[in-house]
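Lab notebook, bench 4. The sequencing result for the construct came back, and we need a structural model before the next group meeting so we can plan mutations. Quick request posted to the team channel:

Model the 3D structure of this chain.
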Amino acid sequence: MKLFDVVRLNSDLPEEGLPAGAEGTIIEVYEKPEPAYEVEFTDGTTAAVRPELLSPR
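Done. Here's the predicted structure in token form:
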């Protein structure tokens, strides 16, 4: 995965209020200490939902 790729959640993240299937855009890629991605999710409107730091699974 790379910067600005659009990704979709495979499972719910209830503590973040994000359901499985939610789509977001990678806005930062981290390699260390382990691979992780900062992803900005939207709620289907023009408003952005806060970014989340996610690890690939």
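The longest strand covers residues 23-30.
Will bring this to the meeting.
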